[in-house]
Write a structure and sequence with these properties.
three-stranded antiparallel β-sheet; alpha+beta; DUF3027; DUF3027 domain-containing protein
Length: about 260
């Protein structure tokens, strides 16, 4: 069942000149352009739209809402508002700051706490920890693969040590500015993915999508402000919003400043 369509009020629809006169009295004739049409808001309620010619408001329009009481011929004015049209320049949709953070945004000393219900983390006692070796024969299978069942050549001990030293001395090691100011090390972070093999006791992989090192090899004594257990101090808490204020200033008072 569809609702009955509201019948336009002829007196309100025809009150274009009266709406323009009321609008120019409020904002001045210099900012009011052509009549853009009307919209029936409800029974005996109509909004008339006028182009806004004020500099910097291209595509915006004035809306003047008029009404008429039952069995009354006089037209009354409800409100005047400035609304954006289809071509108006408006601010982009607001995005919470945590959703705006991208890898690489963290600077030394920055802290990025994790919510208690973050779906990326679970209590270790309920899920277990990543084992270094799947079973006691994992090392045997690795040696068999290195002997030629998959690759022609593999890293020597010297090559592995050179890689480990390079990683340890790089941005993913403990000497980087990010690690020096971190509140905790990667070895205690829930976002650390353990790796298998001879370098497992020194390195892991960061799996925090908000961290600078996401997807990179990091030393266990590396760290950053996106540690899973970081907490903000009282001085670092967001400033609370002030109490709402009822604004009674008119356009004339604002433009007089």
């Amino acid at each position: 069942m569809t609702a009955a369509r509201t019948r336009p009020d002829a007196a309100l629809v025809g009150a274009v000149d009266a709406a323009r006169a009321f609008l120019t009295d409020q904002v001045g004739s210099a900012d009011v352009g052509e009549h853009l049409g009307h919209e029936v808001e409800g029974e005996r309620v109509v909004s008339h739209f006028f182009a806004c010619t004020r500099a910097g408001y291209r595509g915006w329009r004035w809306s003047v809402t008029v009404a008429r009481a039952p069995r009354q011929k006089a037209v009354t004015f409800d409100e005047v508002v400035l609304t954006p049209g289809d071509d108006a320049i408006v601010a982009p949709e607001w995005v919470p700051w945590k959703e705006r953070i991208k890898p690489g945004d963290l600077s030394p000393g920055d802290l990025l706490p994790v919510e208690d219900d973050d779906p990326r983390l679970v209590p270790t006692y309920s899920f277990g920890d990543d084992p270094l070796d799947a079973d006691d024969k994992a090392q045997v299978r690795q040696v068999a693969q290195d002997l030629g069942l998959g690759r022609v050549r593999t890293l020597s001990v010297e090559g592995r040590q050179l890689a480990a030293q390079r990683w340890y001395d790089g941005d993913g090691g403990p000497s980087s500015p990010l690690a020096q100011s971190a509140p905790g090390s990667c070895t205690s972070c829930g976002f650390l993915l353990r790796i298998a093999g001879p370098l497992s006791e020194l390195f892991g992989v960061c799996a925090n999508g908000n961290a600078n090192d996401d997807g990179r090899v990091v030393s266990l004594d590396h760290g950053c402000g996106a540690h899973s257990e970081v907490q903000l101090g009282k001085k670092q808490q967001p400033v609370p919003l002030p109490d709402p204020v009822f604004d009674t200033m008119t356009l004339d008072e604002i433009e007089s400043f």
